[in-house]
Write a structure and sequence with these properties.
The complex is a heterodimer of chains A (465) and B (257). Chain A is α/β, with parallel strands linked by helices and 465 residues long. Helices cover 24% and strands 35% of the residues of chain A. In chain A, the strands form three sheets. In chain A, strands 5, 6, 8, 9, 11, 12, 14, 16, 17, 19, 21 and 23 form a twelve-stranded mixed beta sheet that branches. In chain B, 37% of the residues lie in helices and 25% in strands. The chains are: A alpha/beta (465), B alpha/beta (257).
Amino acid sequence: MVAQVDIGEYKYGFRDEEDYVFKSQRGLSREVVENISKMKNEPDWMREFRLKSYEHFLKRPMPNWGSEAIHEIDFDNIFYYIKPSDVQGKTWDEVPAYIKDTFDKLGIPQAERKFLAGVGAQYESEVIYHSLREDLEKLGVIFLDMDGAVREYPDLVKQYFGTIIPYADNKFAALNSAVWSGGSFVYVPEGVHVEVPLQAYFRINAENMGQFERTLIICAPGSYVHYVEGCTAPTYSTDSLHSAVVEIVVQEGARCRYTTIQNWSKNVYNLVTKRAAAYKDATMEWVDGNLGSKVTMKYPAVWMMEPGARGEVLSVAFAGDGQHQDAGAKMVHAAPHTSSQITSKSISKGTGRSSYRGLVKVHKGADHVRSNVVCDALLLDETSATDTYPYMEIEEEQVSIGHEATVSKVADEQIFYLMSRGLTETEAMSMIVNGFIEPIAKELPLEYAVELNRLIQLEMEGSVG
Amino acid sequence: MFQIENLHASIEDKEILRGVDLTVNAGEIHAIMGPNGSGKSTLANVLAGNPVYEVTEGTARFWGQDILELEPNERAQMGIFLAFQYPTVIPGVSMANFLRMAVGNVRAARAEAEGTDAKLTPREFRRLMREKMALLKMDDSFASRYLNEGFSGGEKKRAEILQMALLEPSLAILDETDSGLDIDALRVVSEGVNALQGPKMATLMITHYQRLLNYIKPDYVHIMIEGRIVKSGGADLAMELEAKGYEKLIGEFAVPA
């Protein structure tokens, strides 16, 4: 069958002229780390934390699993810190015009007006715009860039920063801990429910940029927040690196949902560490959409620390030509009567490869644990690939653990059926793919579900020939 | 309206259709009957454009245009509809979303061909869908169910007729629509088809059994054996067939190898 299709294009691949206050030299050194800390006027403890992390990064070998392409990362060729502007806007008018234009094109101010409670916008290394609805501010909700939080809430930051993900956790957590800049700090006071999402948006602009934002979210007992992040970058022929660390503390009876729609250009290595600690009767939900990037290695984790804690990961990945999405989840049951659910859906096409990599760990003494893992992979053609690495470490007997995995191909008869109802081949393929991810899309706020479907539509165009 | 001439088609180099000739006019109901493996379902699939079959010879002209080179969606847009014997499951796609797209595409094509404006607002679409669902005695909740997923045999066939009702084809091909239906379901489905049938629409019913013809009265009955139509007649031919059985007919019309 020959279908008439448009060639899908990455819509966010445009770039701005660089007009920066400061751009570090290429490569990483002790001086670069110290200089970042100095420019930020940080307290000693943070400077020391960075330097310790830097030492660990040097010592720590690269992971010998996941994507092989990460061994091609040239750490000496990356810009580790770029400060685009001296000011952080509280209104978009205070943001440099060309940066505001970029975020306009990405639809951020429009979304903010329509359905968001607060917005943080990071451009290169710094958050250049930040807002929070006044009523939430009055309720004591804190939503700041991480650098601002180090200055304004030093005790709170010091209490939690680096406790959920220690700098020595892995090589890329160490790298982030050494050179981190930007990211969000969120504190939701006891009993406060933030009913509409807070959103952070991360934009890389420069070639060979390294973006290392650092996010810390603290949900006090009985509170609720939904935090959403999106990310894009221009398309370059050489690679950029995005390596974030996200730490979340969900205290008794609180619930946190963290949604990511990752749409980096296909020259970005996306190597991110995300982990939450959930306490008594608390719920942590990660909704993780990975569409862009060259390589993603990301396994959002929930450590269930006290009885009644619940962890959930909903993960959807799309691996197109040249992409490897190595994504999954980690559920660590450190207390009895805890439960977790992992639902992973991946779609691969062309030379794309998606891997599910997940861990369910039940500590000794954590009885009456329930955990269920479902991972489904959809292959769109003969050339794409998928693999599954489900790890189980169960040290307790009184547990209920389920695991299901399926791999399916789009059937010719499905395409024919839909085409016989007037759909083009591309429309038919998109409809099947959107149906496949429906269980995850329906968990998203409408605006993001529409965005996810639209992005997949774009990925699908040009995929049929 | 529709003329098939000397149609030959094969699957994996095995010839199934060996020279089918058939003419169907608007307003007519034709039944094609035949034993298993005679090529009835192949004919239905070839006319709808199923790419697993290769057409090796012949033409099928719809309003004068040979459709055999057209994509399945182009045929659908021209007004050809196949009610499948085994409708396929599309997980995660709701009936309503699927139907909205299908109806939108087919209407847009028709509007372009006729130079009219056939756009439906979402509200008009929902109203139309509910109206047709009521005709087929389908519950409203059907609209939000995933396409054919977990449908009973009867629900699948009803869903096919619902699609037909919304797409308003001028040529409807029903492939063994009666198979797997109990009497009640058969009655509902038949009433649906009868309600849709009109002077502008032609129906080609493919069936193994005479039973369906008690509910949908054909103007013409054709008997297909070994990839050819060997005998045509009126509704009484089906009766004769029922009395004699295929065995005897095969003997009469066996094609020399």
